Amino acid sequence: MADKNNIEKITTELKSKKMIALVAPSFVAEFQYPKILIQLKKLGFDKVTELTFGAKLVNREYHSQLAKSKRLLIASPCPGIVELIKKRYPKYKKNLALIDSPMIAIAKVCKKYHPKHKTVFISPCDYKKIEVSRTKYVDYVIDYEQLHDLIKKNKLSKVNIPKKKPLFNKFYNDYTKIYPLAGGLAKTAHLKDVIKKNEVKSIDGVKKVMKFLDNPDPKVRFLDVLFCDGGCIGGPRTSKKLTIAQKRKKVINYMKKSQGKNIPEDRKGIYDKAKGLKFTRKSF
Predict the structure, then answer these.
(1) Core-most of 19, 64, 96, 235, by most CB within 10 Å?
(2) Looking at the domain assignment, is residue 1 inside a domain?
(3) ω before 34 within 30° of 0 (cis)?
(4) Tell me, what DSSP letter sits at residue 276?
């Protein structure tokens, strides 16, 4: 984990190798958009992409698995939840969805189209560092605190934003921008035709998750859970200057502003771009 989170090594390689920044969907609660795109490019990233298309791809897998099975399915994008269940609730390990996280999904897509690029995940938490350490698809990880330090160190806190605002590189999707919020997966996976509303339970915050697992509701078939209070916007590497409510509002406003935008066809995240790739896994 330390090697993939080695900032000195990453900054050195940014000067000599092509790298793609994979930006966690909670970024807009932490950094100014589109300013962050310019800052990342000036740091040396050749391309910058959101995880929104990755979320769209894994949502399809959740829809498919819930349509086929009646047993409890526990969402697994959050590695904090995965680790909690493995260590404290091993009897539920069989219920974890064997589905990639949006980070792994988008990394697979990026590796397909840009096999010579290094992938670097921009993370709000430390549990994602554990996940990165266990996958071959993400080469490095930088947390939000470290990115703030890099921006300050390279004197990029103030950058000019051109009239023609920059866009993320390809693989764009709008409605999954609420993924880092509590219940974001359940709200965006179009589950109405495969599961009843009272069979879905969304929980954020490890104490509340544990309370449910200690005394589960037998009618719940899908548990959409996140380790941190508020979801990923409450991650340990996020700033505490804003409240969870303020961060949530920023994410929702960002999604609303994004919807209806005239995005060029080559930048859209359409399923054909992931053709030939699988977004399921054998085990945790």
Answers:
(1) 235
(2) no
(3) yes
(4) T
CB 58 within 8 A of CB 271: no
pLDDT at residue number 142:
98
Backbone φ and ψ for 168, nearest 5 degrees, come out as -65, 150
Domain that holds residue 128: 7-274
Burial class (CB within 10 angstroms; exposed 0-12, middle 13-18, buried 19+) of 167? middle
Alpha-carbon gap, residue 231 to 163, rounded angstroms = 34
Q: Which residues pair with 172 in a beta bridge?
A: 268
Task: Give me the number of domains the chain comprises.
Answer: 1
User: Is residue 90 one of the residues assigned to a domain?
Assistant: yes
What is the pLDDT, as a whole number, of residue 173? 74
pLDDT of residue 264: 66
283 is a domain residue: no
Question: pLDDT tens for residues 20-38?
Answer: 999 999 999 999 999 999 9
Residues 25, 172: Cα–Cα separation, whole Å: 12
What single-letter amino acid sits at 184?
G
Whether 19 contacts 120, CB under 8 Å: yes
| Residue at 165 is within a domain | yes
β-bridge mates for residue 226, sequence order: 204
Segments in the chain below pLDDT 50: none
